[in-house]
Structures are given as structure tokens and as C-alpha cells.
Amino acid sequence: MTGDVLLRLTCATGDVDPLVDALRAVSAPPIHVRDEMVRGLDFADAGTAERVTGALRRSAIELTVHDRDLDRLIDAAAGTRRRLPVRWIVLPVLRGGRIA
């Protein structure tokens, strides 16, 4: 990969602050955080109450970075103290801009 990518981490809502702090410590781009409700069959990351209801409350953390910074960001996230696992995915940014 060469260029900008979107790094998306999905975590327990209570784990957002330490993850954002860790990412901010190694990267300057804006960090977007969004609460999500996930419904599905993969409950490996679920707490007991979430397994009973079949709904996971999670937060998505997204930032656009250069691909050369990915290892440093993933390492920073991995080094945080958190309750539950963090899932991550990287997507290429094909185009982008700002409309004023």
C-alpha cells in the first residue's frame, strides 16, 4: 500500500478513552468516534448481558492516516489497558476532499 488509508477500530464503549489517548499520542489527524449497536452471531467480544440480548454496544474509532503509520498506531492500541478485545480494519482511501 502507498498512501492514505482509513483505520477503523471497534471496541467496547468503555474502552474508547484510553484508545483515543494512545492514538493521539502517536498521530495528529482528527479522530472520529461513533457509538454503534452491533447485532449478529459473533459474540466472542460480548459481555454476559450482551449475549443475552443479542446486541453488542460498541464504539467505532476512525482516522485517516498514511499507511506507513499503521504499525505504530496498531501497536499503540494494543498497548492500552482495556476490558475487551479491539477489532481493526484498514481500508484504502481512493478519493477524498472537502466541499464548502
What structural category characterises the helix and strand content? alpha+beta
pLDDT average, as an integer? 88
- Write down the Rg: 15 Å
The helix fraction, in percent, is 25-40%
Overall geometry comes to globular
Structural features:
single chain; about 100 residues; alpha+beta; four-stranded antiparallel β-sheet
Short note summarizing the structure:
26% of the residues lie in helices and 35% in strands.
Could you describe the 3D structure shown?
With 100 residues, the chain is α+β, with helices and mostly antiparallel strands. It has helices at 16-26, 48-53, 70-78, and strands spanning 4-12, 32-39, 55-66, 87-92. It contains three helices and four strands; from the N terminus they run βαβαβαβ. The mean pLDDT is 88.
Helices and strands in order:
Elements: E1 4-12, H1 16-26, E2 32-39, H2 48-53, E3 55-66, H3 70-78, E4 87-92
Antiparallel strand pairs: 1-3, 1-4, 2-3
